[in-house]
Amino acid sequence: MEILQKVHARHLVEWAKDKPEVLVLSADLTSNTEVDLFRDAYPERFLSMGMTEQNMMSLAGGLAREGYFPLVHTFAVFIYRRALDQISMSIAYPNMPVRMFGFLPGITTPGGATHQAIDDIGILRVLPNMTILESGDATEVEQVLDIAHTVPGPVYVRQLRGAIPRLFPPSIPMRLGEARELRRGTDIALFSGGICTEEAMRATQILEERGVSIQHMHISTHKPFNDPAVVEAAAQAKYCVISMENHTTIGGLGSAVAERMAEAGVGKRLVRIGLKDTYAHGASRPYLMNEYGLDAIALVREVESVLSTNLNISESDLAEVRIEEIHSEAKAEAL
Amino acid sequence: MVKAKQTSVPEWQEHARQVAQGIRIRVLEHTINKNGGYLSQACSSSEVFAALYTKILNIGPSQAPMVPLPFPGVPSADNDSYFTGVGYNGPKDPHLDRFFISPVQYALVLYATLVEVERMAPEGLAMFNQDGSTVEMIGAEHSPGHEITAGSLGQALSQVAGISIGRRMKGETGRNFIFMSDGEFQIGQTWEAFEIMSFNKVDNVVIYVDVNGQQADGTTKDVLNIEPLTQRLEAFGARVFKVDGHDLDALAAPVQLEPDGRPLVILAYTNACNNIPMLEQRRPKLHYVRFKSETERQTYADLLEEWQSKEEM
User: Fold this and answer.
1) Per the structure, how many domains does chain A have?
2) Positive or negative CA dihedral for A237, A240, A246, A252?
3) Going from the N-terminus, what domains does chain B have, and what CATH number goes with each?
4) pLDDT digits 0-9 by tens, A60-81
């Protein structure tokens, strides 16, 4: 598996080259959100907003009304927590094409509760007109720009930075509102998003070797969430449906899957893997994923529980599936 | 109602004075008929609105129907029939000014202004707060004369800063006027917007503030003092003029100056009981006037009758 560095930083410069109407707004986190290369390449299209997130959101709404596409960059928590009213009234109500790039999703940062966006999808999902996307690998970090640009209204992108694996071939593009089928199976339907997909892929390989057949779908569009393939996968699962997300289990992917299943009358058991209605704390990403049960072994244990069996899979088995370069090169996310 | 029509070539001030009195009459009439209204806002800001729409704003003729259209639904990707109330302020031409209202509880005052300057029919004002109408009590962006969603308070200035920066990037020469209330200077976002505007030398913004010293809970100095407002704003890099908000010449003068790299602020110090002395009895609660008795209502009705008979002379 290939590991790439500063994917967003480099891709954005190339992507925005022939788009003079695209502006970047940064709230004092320019290199931290990988827009330093954009700033250097197109200084006239870069607006340094300082720590004025509420002002930044409304101002972006104003720029959008004049025909610009403002790409707002800061840590996710400073978007939806700090400036929710401004997002709702200055951007979402008038359906302005502002693109908000929220970095440090969930427990990807050792910055603790103040920096960890554990409830962003749940909070923004209830806003009318809002589209919500999440990148799960380097290919999506790149392609999410094109996807967002097709949306006539506001888009929130849960974005990754730093060292990112390429899980999906660029030749199979990310599509708005469509789940990505990663594995076919009939025992369990598994829906994962963001960084949880890499963990899930590690587990599903061994699970299949142990005879558990899994329909694994990667979710990159959280809203709108109406891909019929999701309901079809849930309906055909023999034992259960599992959701797996780097977010609280309330309001995010697990809730969206539950809503779709209930609406479609799919009466299957649903297991939601994620932060179980709790804040987290500052520590490394692998440590937190393990502590809060968001990693491959957590998925294995849930599958064992559902099937009432011991599949004899250990953490070291899963570590062998892991491609070593990922974690030797990928240092813990700093601030 | 018969209006005192213009004779020969009147000074703009005479026209503005008539408009200001017309605004007060319409808002008072509404307040009496509905037993409630934003009357003190009309008292404090009538001259500001009158000066803006008769002299200060460089805007073209209204592009919107004299009788406002019904509510078109909220904005969404699926709503092709959505419109804002911007058309009442003329076309969005590069060289023309734009006008934005931030404290949209002043919507009644703005609607009355639009009627007085013949951008909206009197029937429009009668649609105020009627179900299915765009002439909403708290102005929305589909309401006549409105263009943006201004609430909660404090968001409009940042949006106008964005619009102003965007227009400047496009080389547009029209200026962007915003009407604000003094209570908004208690809000952090207002000051964030001033930081950004002065840092970016945004001088195509003109801010009129109705400093009437009133807010929902009472007087601003008792709820949360905002003074010294001039010094506070100057410290944030604004170009500030403190004027008598009922003096038309004083209101109009600062706009004649060449922009100098700073956002221009006109602090219009006003009296929320101006021209209606009996409102003084209601101090300190002036935010929304609802009559306490039929006797009180009749007193105001007598004043209205007196005003209307003068108009007809």
Assistant:
1) 2
2) positive
3) 12-72+81-312 (3.40.50.970)
4) 999 999 999 999 999 999 999 9
Task: Please identify which residue in the block is written with the tokens 């025992």.
Answer: A187
What are residue B205's DSSP bridge partners? B176
Q: Which of A58, A65, A128 sits opposite B158 (nearest CB)?
A: A58
What is the largest distance, in Å, between two alpha-carbon atoms of chain A? Answer: 61
Sequence-distant (6+) residues with CB within 8 A of A267 are none
Please indicate, yes or no, whether residues A125 and A272 belong to a single structural domain of this protein: no
Residues of B in contact with A47 (CB under 8 A): 165, 200
The alpha-carbon radius of gyration of chain B (Å, integer) is 19
pLDDT bracket for residue B7 (50, 70, 90): low
pLDDT at B9: 59
| Claim to verify: residue A108 and residue A235 sit in the same structural domain | no
DSSP string, A16-42: TTT-TTEEEEESS-TTTTT-HHHHHH-
pTM (whole model) above 0.80 = yes
Go through chain B and tell me how many residues it has: 313
3-class secondary structure for B269-281? ECCCCCCCHHHHH
Are A80 and A154 in the same domain?
yes
CB contact under 8 Å between A55 and B165, yes or no, is: no
Contact assessment for residue B312 and residue B1, using Cβ atoms and an 8 Å cutoff = yes
Contact B75 A66 (CB under 8 A): no
CA B270 to chain centre: 13
What is the phi/psi pair of residue B64, to 5°? Answer: -110, 160
Q: What is the ipTM of this complex?
A: 0.94
Based on the fold, state whether residues A117 and A80 are members of the same structural domain.
yes
> Does the pLDDT at position A133 exceed 50?
yes
Q: Note the Cα B23 to chain centre separation in Å.
A: 11
**Could you list the residue range(s) of the whole structural domain that residue A108 is in?**
3-165
Q: How far is CA B62 from CA B84, B133, B178, B298, in A?
A: 13, 19, 18, 37
The 3-class secondary structure across A94-120, one letter per residue, is CCCCCEEEEECECCCCCCCCCCCECCH
CA distance B18 to chain A (A): 34
* CA B207 to mean position of chain CA atoms: 11
